Amino acid sequence: MRATTTVPARGAARTSGTVRIVGAGLLGSSIGHALSALGVDVALADTSPGQLRLAVDYGAGRVARDDDRPRLIVVAVPPDVTADVVARELAAFPEAVVTDVASVKLEPLRALRERGVDLTHYIGSHPLAGRERGGAISARADIFIGRPWVVCRDDQTSPADLAVVEGLALDVGAMPLEMDPVEHDRSVALVSHVPQLVASLLAGRFAGAPEGSLRLAGQGVRDTTRIAASAPELWVQILGSNAAPVVEVLDALAADLGEVAAALRHPDAPGARRTVADTIRRGNEGVELLPGKHGQNRRFAQLVVMVDDTPGQLGRLFGELGELDVNVEDLRLEHSPGAQFGLAEISVDPGAVRRAEDGLTARGWRIASTTND
């Protein structure tokens, strides 16, 4: 896997001519919003007239016309119909470059090859972006900014066609990455598909739990289960299309869980505590490998500030951090039920944490804690 280029400053669009987007849901409409903001002519098509009209009303593009001659076609439909729509679009617009944004790449490619479809102008791709909520009403132009956009070229892909798809990714603010379909599907199984299942399984344990137990939930459990709000219908298709790589990761995870459960059944047995400690340590090591801000494997210090639940307080906090010449690298907010304040966990450069703590304290802010790894 390699990055093909870096994200440039937003300016003139690389994408020219008409872009036809088939599927006016979250991803399709979000691409439409981002391209429309750059002045690109976006033609939207969808089997649902209501969804299409909603996307148009929100400004994602215009309704596609029979006389459109698109240079680029983006297929943004569910995985189980991706191959059908790609084949239809290639036949209808033989001169256009066709890409799809499905979250699995190998299965649609296999289906197209089995049908003998001419794939000269087809390039599968996948933006690693989204939201828990779907549909045109949830679409946003900025969801791709800074996110990877996988492009699955092959030996037959022409440089000109590749440039069209990579130009699309760059225009919406994403970072193009080249991967083959097998590598892509194994990668998303690990970092996307299995995490969805784990979040759903964990959140499912809350069903029927005593109300008192759930009232103890903090930001940690909310972070862990955030994606459990995703649509079941879509995930049934995604997981079914990428079943083998997902099962491989699940089997390894199940073995790890079994090992920890065995240790905790007899916590005083020789080696039990080491098993638990090694599990937590491996988690620490894994987190350290995740890319941070701007794709860097860089860790920041955390400063937890108590913020009164009144208008303007968060803005004042940011303003005073700016006066202290402290850049906010990341922010997480936590509200405790019934409390009149929230906790703002602010990530800053480790070299600035002492300056931030002293300066905010002098200005009357209450610091709950600081950590500096």
Automatic annotation (TrEMBL):
Enzyme class, UniProt record, top EC level: oxidoreductase
PANTHER family: PREPHENATE DEHYDROGENASE, PREPHENATE DEHYDROGENASE [NADP(+)]
Pathway as given in its UniProt record: Amino-acid biosynthesis; L-tyrosine biosynthesis; (4-hydroxyphenyl)pyruvate from prephenate (NAD(+) route): step 1/1
Record-listed E.C. numbers: 1.3.1.12
Pfam families: PDH_C, PDH_N
UniProt entry tagged with the keyword Transcription regulation: no
Family: Belongs to the prephenate/arogenate dehydrogenase family.
Catalysed conversion reaction: prephenate + NAD(+) = 3-(4-hydroxyphenyl)pyruvate + CO2 + NADH
UniProt-recorded name of the protein: Prephenate dehydrogenase
Coiled-coil region list: none
Biological process according to GO: tyrosine biosynthetic process
Keyword terms of this UniProt record: Amino-acid biosynthesis, Aromatic amino acid biosynthesis, NAD, Oxidoreductase, Tyrosine biosynthesis
The Prephenate/arogenate dehydrogenase domain, residue ranges: 17-293
Span of domain ACT: 302-373
GO molecular function: NAD+ binding; prephenate dehydrogenase (NAD+) activity; prephenate dehydrogenase (NADP+) activity
Domain of life: Bacteria
